[in-house]
Amino acid sequence: MKVNVLFSTAAMALAMLATTQANAKEPIEPIRPVQDVNLAQVELGKKLYFDPRLSKSGFISCNSCHNLSMGGTDNLKTSIGHNWHQGPINAPTVLNSSLNFVQFWDGRAADLKAQAGGPIANPGEMAFTHTLAVDVLQSIPGYVHEFKQVYGKDKIDIDMVTTAIAEFEKTLVTPNSRFDRWLLGDKSALNADELAGYQLFKNSGCVACHNGPAVGGNSFQKMGVVQPYKAKSPAEGRVAVTGKDADRFMFKVPTLRNVEMTYPYFHDGEAETLTEAVDIMGRLQLGKRFSGKENRQIVAFLKTLTGDQPAFQMPILPPSSEKTPAPKPFE
C-alpha cells in the first residue's frame, strides 16, 4: 500500500509552497521531503540494508560502505570489501541517491533497484551470489514471514530484495539544510561569508555541473577539463560501461549535499579536505585559481548544504535458524 510520509515540519511544507520568484530562478533547488513510499517495503528494506548475512562472509552489509552515521559513506579513500579487498573507487554517499539520474560513478545502474543488487554479487565487495543470498534469507523464518506479509509470496527472490532496499534508500533524503531555508525565504539562514561563497560558486561556473536539488548527480562530466587529472585509481569512468574512448574519465557528477560529511573527495578519494577539493576543481575544471579568502568562502557555503540526517530506530534483525550458514569472515 502506498502512503504519504512527511519528514519535515508543517512550517517547512508551507515555506516550500511560498518559495519566492527570485529563489525559483536559482540553479539549486530545495530538497523536498519524501512522499509516496511503501512503508512495508521500507521497513523490510531497512533490515536488509543493515544485514551482513547478505554477504559471503556474513560480516559486510550495505551500511558497511554507506554508513548512515557518517553521511552515507565510509570516509575512506576506497572501500574495504571481502577479505579486506581494497576497492578501486570511493564509495559515493547513499544520502539523496534517489535524486541521481543514474547510480554508481560510471552510471552502470539505471536506478536504486538495479544498484542494490550490484554489491551483493561483486567479488570485491560482498562477494556473494544473488542465489546464495536468497537461500540465506529463505533459511531465516522471520524473513520468510515478513516477505510473505509484504509481497504475498512464500518464495523470496532477488527482485523482492532489491526492491525493498531501494524503497528504504528513497527515504534517505536530507531536507532542511540552512541553504534550503535561505532558498525558502529565511534570509538570516546564511551569513555574509556563506552568501559570498554562493555567489562565487555561481559566478565561477560551478553550477554548470552542480545544480538542481542534489547540487549534482544529474550529468556525466569529464574529470580534468582544463588540465588533466592525474589519478591513482585504475577506475576510468564511463568508458568501462560504453567502451567508447570519448567516455574515458567521464564520471557522474557527485551530489554536494552533506559534502562536509562525505570526505575524502573525488572518485579516487585523493582530496582529503574541502579546501583541497575546491582548489583542484577550480584549477582543473574551471581554469581558475581561487584565493585563500575565496576558497574559504566557497567552503563556508558548501557546509550550509548539510541537511537533517535520516533518523530512525535501528532495525532488529530476525535470528538465523539451524539451516542458516554461519558467518565465515576469515575465509
Describe the structure.
By secondary structure, this protein is mainly α. It has 2 domains: 2-30 and 176-305, Cytochrome c-like domain (Cytochrome Bc1 Complex, Chain D, domain 2, Orthogonal Bundle); 39-170, Cytochrome c-like domain (Cytochrome Bc1 Complex, Chain D, domain 2), CATH 1.10.760. The chain has helices at 10-17, 21-24, 39-50, 62-65, 112-121, 130-138, 141-151, 158-170, 178-183, 192-203, 239-242, 274-286, 292-303, and strands at 2-3, 37-38, 220-222, 250-252. Helix 3 crosses helix 8. Residues 1-16 and 18-22 have low confidence and may be disordered.
Question: What are the defining features of this structure?
Answer:
two-stranded antiparallel sheet; 13 helices; Cytochrome Bc1 Complex, Chain D, domain 2; 331 residues; single chain; mainly alpha; 2 domains; 36% helix; disordered N terminus; 3% strand; two-stranded antiparallel ribbon
